[in-house]
Design a protein that fits this description.
By secondary structure, the chain is an alpha+beta fold. About 20% of the residues lie in helices and about 35% in strands. The protein has a 6-stranded mixed beta sheet, with helices on both faces. A 5-stranded antiparallel beta sheet has the order 15-14-13-16-22. The longest helix is centred in the middle third of the chain and has 18 residues.
């Protein structure tokens, strides 16, 4: 069973009259890769800073291995941080950048007296070379940081943070400055390093693909609150509300009515689903992922609509389809031209039901992708009342 390492208890954070964190309760296990995910201003970096000791919460407690550390300064916590700006020393080579923290004398109690103790030079060299091998920079000791690529500089920053052997590494959007290909490569490297070192990583990002690729646990945040905690699979396949469904991947989010367990209605048609526990005739949000929709000939479809836009994405086509004035995004490997009428089929496990929330009605309509975009923004435009059909 996983051992709990960090716990935030009812943490709030306010700046003047603005509440940044609203009663955050969260625990993090030893050797876990946990990601704080959300849009700018959601409170994820503030949460990270509270764990690191750079910010003291307005109220609430921070526990580390069962001991409260809310007022403990950063240098006394068993935590190190890698920031988006790596803050490497340009006048030092790679070896000296990594060794920097090891050369700072530590205070230790010897015979009842606190004394400053320096690590032997042999110990420093052994640990630096060991860490450079972990981050795949063996042989780069004499290079100056200005001679390194962005990805290599990031590895130096990670090695410098890990060489002090913290129990927790905090990473605040460390891949943000890298190009797409390098960012994807570094995702795999970070996960490998975390598993090899066997320590806890707490990672902050607004990129849901990064979160899905690396994390053991994802914490989705918005407006200073935790919206959902779960594995990447759980958060993607079982979102708790419309915000999570929209932020993690693409989603078609519809208004529905839960008639009974395993039966939901939307677009005036009843569908079988796998959800239960809702009140009879309860209004719900219905989530359908774009990749789960099967396109079939019109006469075979449960619903039918008209293709209004197609975008080639390399592996698949993003196809916008108008169903009775509501735009769906469908991802398919088959090309369906604009103007074609199509049918779709939904299996029970393609449909996910959520309770209504404050986010209901805010997401899921892909009108902005369609050819009608200019018409939507034209105040003189009036629909002629003709609707894309669908089968009852």
């Amino acid at each position: 069973m996983a051992k709990e390492l960090i716990r935030l208890v009812d943490c709030c954070m306010s700046y003047d009259d603005t509440q940044v964190l609203d009663h955050i309760n969260l625990y993090i296990n030893d050797r876990e890769f946990l990601t704080l995910l959300g849009p700018s201003g959601c409170g994820k970096t503030t949460t990270l800073r509270i764990i690191g000791g750079f910010t003291t919460p307005t109220s609430g407690k921070v526990l580390f291995d069962g001991q409260e550390i809310s007022s403990l300064p950063p240098h006394l916590r068993q935590v190190n941080t890698v920031f988006q700006r790596y803050a490497l020393f340009p006048h030092l080579n790679v070896f000296e950048n990594v060794a920097f923290g090891l050369r700072i004398p530590r205070r230790e109690e010897i015979n009842g007296k606190k004394k400053k103790v320096k690590l032997p030079e042999e110990e420093i060299r052994r640990r630096v070379l060991e860490m450079l091998e972990v981050v795949s920079l063996k042989g780069f000791e004499e290079r100056h940081v200005g001679e390194l690529s962005g990805g290599q500089q990031q590895r130096v920053a990670i090695a410098r943070a890990l060489v002090n052997r913290p129990k927790v590494l905090l990473l605040d959007e460390p891949l943000g400055a890298l190009d797409l290909r390098l960012r994807k490569d570094m995702q795999s490297e970070l996960k490998r390093i975390q598993q090899q070192m066997g320590i806890t990583f707490i990672y902050v990002t607004h990129d849901q693909e990064e979160a899905l690729a690396m994390s053991d646990t994802i914490v989705v945040m918005d407006q200073g609150r935790i919206q959902q905690i779960g594995t990447p699979e759980d958060v993607y396949n079982e979102p708790k509300n419309a915000f999570v469904a929209d932020f993690i991947g693409e989603s078609n989010i519809l208004d529905g009515i839960m008639h009974q367990d395993y039966v939901v209605e939307f677009f005036n048609r009843k569908f079988k689903c796998l959800d239960k526990g809702f009140a009879p005739m309860e209004p719900v949000d219905v989530v359908i992922r774009p990749e789960d929709v099967d396109i079939v000939p019109v006469e075979e479809g449960q619903l039918r609509g008209t293709v209004t836009a197609v975008t080639f994405k390399g592996v698949h086509y993003d196809t916008i389809v108008d169903f009775k004035g509501y735009k769906w995004l469908i991802q398919t490997t088959d090309y369906h031209p604009v103007g074609r009428e199509i049918g779709i089929v939904l299996n029970p496990d393609d449909i996910h039901i959520m309770h209504k929330s404050s986010y209901s009605g805010m997401f899921g309509d892909y009108s902005s992708y369609s050819e009608e975009y200019d018409e939507i923004n034209d105040p003189t435009y009036v629909e002629d009342g003709e609707e894309a059909g669908y089968e009852e």
